Amino acid sequence: KAGVTQTPRYLIKTRGQQVTLSCSPISGHRSVSWYQQTPGQGLQFLFEYFSETQRNKGNFPGRFSGRQFSNSRSEMNVSTLELGDSALYLCASSLGAGGTYNEQFFGPGTRLTVL
Amino acid sequence: AQSVTQLGSHVSVSEGALVLLRCNYSSSVPPYLFWYVQYPNQGLQLLLKYTTGATLVKGINGFEAEFKKSETSFHLTKPSAHMSDAAEYFCAVSDRSGGSYIPTFGRGTSLIVHP
C-alpha cells in the first residue's frame, strides 16, 4: 500500500506570496492532519480534517487554512507569507478521526523556505 | 493544558549500550502517550503507544517504554543501541479536548550512536 505523499517536497517563496501544499493520504484513510516543524518551536499541530470537515485546529493565525476533498486528499494554504513560516510541513493520515488516538502515518513533508 | 518535556536535546551512546530517552508530561486527565522516530528527510514513524492496559509497552525495532503515572513519565528504552537507531525521537501526548484528541509533541531528542 502506498504511503502518505506530499507535494511538492521543496518550495521557495518570497514574503507576501501565498502557497498551497498538497497531501494524499494512505488509501482508505479519512483523517488528515497537518503539522508545522521548526527548530525553534518543534512540532506544532495545525489542523485536522475528517470527511471534508475540519475537526480540530491548532493555535495558528487565519493565514493558515486547509481543506479536504471527497477523495480524502488535503491541501493546506498559507497566505501573505512571513519569514517565520519557513518550516517543514508534515501531513499525517489515519483511518479514523481523533488525531493521534488512532495511529498516524506521516508523509516526508514539504520544506518551505520564505525569503 | 497538556505539555511534554523531553530531557536532553541530544543523547550520545556507544553501539551496544543502553538507550534511555526521557519524557515527562503534564495532563489534566490520563493521556494517551506516544513515541515517534524521525530519520533525516523523512516524516515521523510511530514506535509505540500507550492507551490503556499494561504499562510496559513494546514497540518496533526493540524499543519499549513504561508508563509511570505517579512519576508522569513515559521513558523510552532499548537494551542495545545500533548505529541505525541514530535519529530524532519525539514523545507525544494527547487527551480529549472538545471531543477530539489534540496532540502535543515534545521538542525532540537527537540520539547519536558512536561505533
Protein architecture, described:
The complex is a heterodimer of chains A (115) and B (115). Chain A is mostly beta strands and 115 residues long. Chain A is built from no helices and 11 strands. Chain A is globular. The mean pLDDT of chain B is 90. Chain B has 115 residues and is an all-beta fold. In chain B, the strands form 2 sheets. In chain B, strands 2, 4, 5, 9, 10 and 11 form a 6-stranded mixed sheet that branches. Chain B has a 5-stranded antiparallel sheet with strand order 1-3-8-7-6, with no helix packed on it. The chains are: A mainly beta (115), B mainly beta (115). The interface between A and B is medium-sized, with 25 and 25 residues.
Element layout with pairings:
The complex is a heterodimer of chains A (115) and B (115).
Chain A lengths: L4 E3 L2 E4 L5 E6 L6 E8 L3 E9 L2 E5 L6 E5 L5 E5 L8 E8 L10 E2 L3 E5 L1
Parallel strand pairs in A: 2-11
Antiparallel strand pairs in A: 1-3, 3-8, 4-5, 4-9, 5-6, 7-8, 9-10, 9-11
Chain B lengths: L2 E5 L2 E5 L4 E8 L5 E7 L5 E7 L5 E3 L5 E5 L4 E6 L8 E11 L2 E6 L3 E6 L1
Parallel strand pairs in B: 2-11
Antiparallel strand pairs in B: 1-3, 3-8, 4-5, 4-9, 6-7, 7-8, 9-10, 9-11
